[in-house]
Amino acid sequence: PYRGGAPAIVDLAAGRVQAQPVINELLINPPGTDDAPNEYIELRGTPNYVFPAGSYLIVLEGDTSSTPGTIDDIFELAGRTIGGNGFLVLLQKNHPYSPHPNASVYVNTGTDDGWGSGSTSSIGHRGNTSLENGSKTFLLIQTTNPPALGMDLDANDDGRPDHPQYASWLVWDSVGVMDLHADIT
User: Fold this and answer.
1) What confidence tens digit (pLDDT) does each residue in 105-128 have?
2) Closest by alpha carbon to 52, among 138, 118, 141?
3) Where are the extended beta strands (E) located within the chain?
4) Global pTM value
5) CB atoms within 10 A of CB 113
6) How many CB atoms lie within 10 A of CB 14?
7) Cis peptide, bond prior to residue 96, ω within 30 of zero
8) Among candidates 79, 71, 55, 75, which has minimal Cα distance to 141?
9) What DSSP state is assigned to residue 119?
């Protein structure tokens, strides 16, 4: 997986340590025939933390039979708040879950199923209405140079980001997911 980031921020004057937000849990290919409405994403961080402008969760293609390193999904997080219990949960439309009452919960209530996309998503998602199954990498980033759907971060497919825009991104956390039948070369 793509990895980067910075250490925790220490505010000695106030006596606080603020850890960067992280990807805590993902359910991206639930059992059964339909992924929607059962996929979810859970982020963890400092309670009541507000994501600054330019905060995103992006999903990169990981299958070598496709175009690895290409951005397939983008969740815009700017202005979203981590709940009082330290969790932020993203849920699909018509989900079956009962999240903790102290978590910040964002549910797609847009006109499209699953995550929706663009104007059909109420949670700032662009891409497929369900996350594509297979190998992928999730990146939690902050940047002044926003990601774009279809952007190939790994043009030579060597598993390392080489797109010039990537150098300006602060990668808070990343998680790589391998397909059961991953086509590793």
Assistant:
1) 999 999 999 999 999 999 999 999
2) 141
3) 9-11, 16-18, 22-27, 40-44, 55-61, 71-76, 87-91, 104-107, 125-126, 136-142, 170-177
4) 0.87
5) 16
6) 8
7) no
8) 55
9) G
